[in-house]
Write a structure and sequence with these properties.
Helices cover about 80% and strands about 0% of the residues. The protein is built from 3 helices and no strands.
Length: about 80
């Protein structure tokens, strides 16, 4: 017989897997931003410092989504508050 704890563990593992899908968005966004940044530097080499700074700030903000998803997945797997 399946107990409530086993169902919670199974749903937590499923939720952790779904949370890690959120890592795809930042990866795609950062690749797009890096490509556009390289394109902008190619068009205006004099503004390379400002373009790079802005691009890195945007990538850092985008990366937080993936980090939050990782933290949620780790909490669901190792420190499950529902058990």
């Amino acid at each position: 017989m399946i107990t409530g704890i086993e169902i919670i563990k199974a749903c937590s593992a499923l939720g952790a897997g779904l949370a890690m899908i959120a890592g795809l968005g930042p990866g795609i966004g950062q690749g797009f931003a890096a490509g556009k940044g390289a394109e902008a530097v190619g068009r205006q080499p004099d503004a390379a410092g400002e373009i790079t700074r802005t691009m890195l700030l945007g990538q850092a903000v985008a990366e937080t989504t993936g980090i939050y998803a990782l933290v949620i997945a780790l909490i669901l797997i190792f420190a499950n508050p529902f058990i």
